[in-house]
Amino acid sequence: MGGNSIGVFQVVLIFAVISGCTCVELEIMPYSAVQAKPIGKKVLLTCRAQDDKGLFSNQQWLDPQNRTIRNDNELTRNRLSVEKMTPDTLALIFTSLQESEAGTYTCSAVYAGTQTISKSVRIDTIYAISWIDAPQEQFPILGTRYKVKCKVQANPSPIVDWLRNGQQIMAGTSEHYVIDTDGLVIQNVTEEDDGTYICRAIVLDTGELSERNIKVEVHTAPTFDERMPTTVEVVGILSSNVGAV
């Protein structure tokens, strides 16, 4: 073929440019278009070309405000950076993901020197399950109404259920136990309420599950002998000679 001949690939490329067809794509990993990531954790996303890798240039990551993420930005470089992992792979790294960093991030590149193509991913921030007020040993008094404390925090919000000695306590099926938002209410504590309770938190959106073992030990209220005096009289001896040598 002569020096002025046009190859098949060049014809395809010219057709793609004229028709506005973007026949190649960028690939962001992990693959999901919406990703839930825990606050305070290090997070890495990568962007690369799926095909014709040698024809891509000017790869960059854009933040939710459509600003180019740069390592020389003094305001963000300690928490957000980019790294060229391979010639065709650009990573976006969150040093310690914050709630304020949730949003849509876009990877863009120039294909064949003419077309700008891009792909986006949305980052949602989540709080992992944490136990705010859930002592692992609790001591209700016999004959009283008592709440076994178990306050849980997570984002998205968790569902909390209870087990006692391995058996699930079903909400609404018992007058003795009432499941509250921050604990398990025992309506009238008896000696049979002794045992190990499990407070179980589940976040359906993320599949996170965590359990807290709580030992409940029923105590009897202290009693006083009515014959014992309720006050004690203290008699002192005053002397004008106190302290005299």
Tell me what the structure shows.
- This protein has 245 residues and is mainly beta.
- It has two domains: 25-126, Immunoglobulin-like; 134-216, Immunoglobulin-like (Sandwich).
- 5% of the residues lie in helices and 45% in strands.
- The chain is built from one helix and 17 strands.
- The chain has one helix at 8-19, and strands at 26-29, 34-38, 43-49, 56-62, 80-86, 89-94, 103-111, 115-133, 137-138, 146-149, 151-155, 159-164, 167-169, 177-180, 183-186, 195-203, 208-216.
- The strands form four sheets. Strands 2, 4, 7, 8 and 11 form a five-stranded mixed beta sheet that branches. Strands 9-17-16-12-13 form a five-stranded mixed beta sheet, with no helix packed on it. The chain has a four-stranded antiparallel beta sheet with strand order 1-3-6-5, with no helix packed on it.
- The longest helix has 12 residues, at 8-19.
- Residues 1-19 and 237-245 have low confidence and may be disordered.
